[in-house]
Automatic annotation (TrEMBL):
One Pfam family this sequence matches: TetR_N
Record-linked SUPFAM superfamilies: Homeodomain-like, Tetracyclin repressor-like, C-terminal domain
A single GO BP: negative regulation of DNA-templated transcription
Domain HTH tetR-type: 8-68
MF terms in GO: DNA binding
Keyword Transcription regulation annotated: yes
Record feature DNA-binding region, as residue ranges: 31-50
Organism: Bradyrhizobium diazoefficiens (strain JCM 10833 / BCRC 13528 / IAM 13628 / NBRC 14792 / USDA 110)
Protein known as: Transcriptional regulatory protein
UniProt keyword annotations, A-Z: DNA-binding, Transcription, Transcription regulation
Domain of life assignment: Bacteria
Length: 201
């Protein structure tokens, strides 16, 4: 009796599994054994496909960023700056405490406790976070031009503030904070953005 065909390698599924391992354990905490077991491949295949562990992380981040960008497109499509902040931060509160996902944010968790030799990892993660901040800045620039934000508002600073809050929420979630705690933080931040809206005194 002939042997059955080997299961085809599904790159997206494998990257989703690797992404979850990095998300749960961080770059340093994720071992090659954990990654290959989750992906259903052996170490030589991992190195052949991705070069090394850092190459796998970058591929997993590409996958994560692609999915997150779809979500961010929905965030910045909100009609006002206040609603943009609300949609983003309340969405983060829900996503990062969803039992279906590891707690927190991969773009925060992935770089925790990186040793020497992995210096590039925190910079890679920071660059990915900066992409979201840039999207927010561009949206707030438009909000100011449209008269939604005060003429005295600083769109770049506002985007940096919302991004910083989102990172802090990721740290809180990874430390065990529940959804209600994150939503309380989000609510205060949304009020801060609303205070920059035109017509507010």
């Amino acid at each position: 009796m002939g042997m059955g065909r080997p299961r085809e390698f599904d790159a997206e599924t494998a990257l989703d599994q690797a992404m979850e391992v990095f998300w749960r354990h961080g770059y340093e905490g994720a071992t090659i054994a954990q990654l290959t077991e989750a992906m259903g491949i052996n170490p030589p295949s991992l190195y052949a496909c991705f070069g090394n562990k850092e190459g796998l992380l970058k591929a997993a981040l590409d996958r994560y960023t692609k999915l997150r960008n779809v979500w961010m497109d929905g965030v910045v499509s909100a009609p006002t700056a206040r609603e943009v902040a609300e949609r983003m931060l309340m969405g983060i509160a829900d996503k990062q405490t969803d039992p279906a996902n590891p707690p927190g944010c991969l773009l925060v968790q992935g770089g925790i406790a990186c040793d020497s030799g992995s210096e590039n990892v925190p910079f890679e993660l920071a660059a990915r976070r900066a992409q979201n901040e840039d999207q927010l800045r561009d949206r707030f620039v438009r909000a100011k031009a449209e008269g939604d934000l005060k003429s005295s508002s600083d769109p770049a600073a506002l985007a940096r503030y919302v991004s910083a809050v989102s990172v802090g929420m990721g740290v809180m979630a990874s430390s065990g904070a529940d959804r209600e705690a994150l939503r309380q933080v989000a609510s205060v931040a949304v009020q801060a953005v609303e205070a920059q809206s035109a017509g507010r005194t």
